[in-house]
Design goal:
It contains 8 helices and 9 strands. It is an alpha/beta fold. The chain has a single domain, classed as TIM Barrel, CATH 3.20.20.
Length: about 240
């Protein structure tokens, strides 16, 4: 069994991003924006309700307070500030889940915060500490093989090693930066093939053509990828078929 997750609720006000309703039937977990990089209270409430209707795990998707950059620009925050912004955003989404009588399952940092924590152990520890302080039963999602996975495990959290169907990888196992032209995979056939390779063989082909080992507990499909629905649909049915006796 493998978890399929998607980042959702990333619009705000009248502005919408992605097609949450269309992708939800094909995923098992939803990472919902918490109002800093995207989202707002009404969007959060509506997205929680949508996810609950599809019986998928609901997670908080906290990021830097950077709407203009969609949370994808690095920010120089102190470790205490990172700890605080994590608690603030997790608490906001928890209020939305509690009001609707559903459970909060996991936390997945967003964008630049996620990528920085993949390589910065102190930042990763601040994030893991905040998740543990809020609720030690929450699952922490982090990039497979990253500092965030290591720090989460050391803090005593359950961690899910995350891989990406629609992103390319470097030889060190890190994601190709979005500033590079080949960072995002929009061809859904190629993304599908990469997802199945990671799920079934535990490896990924890096941008330089080298196979690298990778642990895959959960596969992410970005909701803002124009091919997201097609990718999610193909991965969903392929992995479902692979589990059929």
């Amino acid at each position: 069994m493998i978890d399929l997750n998607c980042d959702l609720g990333e619009g705000f006000g009248p502005w919408r991003m992605g097609n949450d309703e269309a992708i939800l039937p094909f995923v098992t977990s939803a990472n919902i924006a918490c109002g800093f990089h995207a989202g707002d209270p009404s969007t959060m409430m509506k997205t929680v309700a949508l996810a609950a209707n599809h019986d998928v795990h609901i997670g908080a998707h906290p990021g830097f307070k950077d709407r203009e950059g969609f949370g994808r620009r690095q920010m120089a925050l102190t470790l205490v500030e990172v700890y605080d912004l994590m608690l603030y955003q997790i608490g906001a989404l928890y209020a939305c889940t509690k009001a609707q009588g559903v459970s909060l399952h996991h936390v997945k940092p967003h964008g630049a915060l996620y990528n920085m924590a993949a390589q910065d152990s102190l930042l990763a520890k601040a994030i893991a500490d905040a998740v543990y302080a809020f609720d030690p039963n929450l699952v922490l999602y982090g990039l497979s093989g990253s500092a965030l996975i290591t720090e989460g495990e050391q803090r005593g959290l359950t961690v899910y090693s995350e891989v990406f169907a629609d992103r390319t990888y470097q030889a060190d196992g890190m994601l190709t930066p979005r500033t590079m032209a080949n960072a995002v995979i929009t061809d859904h056939e190629r993304a599908f093939a990469q997802a199945v390779l990671m799920a079934t063989e535990g490896k990924v082909i890096a941008a330089d053509g080298i196979d690298i080992p990778i642990k895959a507990d959960t596969i992410c499909m970005h909701g803002d990828n124009e091919s997201a629905i097609a990718i999610a649909q193909k991965v969903h049915y392929a992995l479902k078929l692979s589990r059929t006796p």
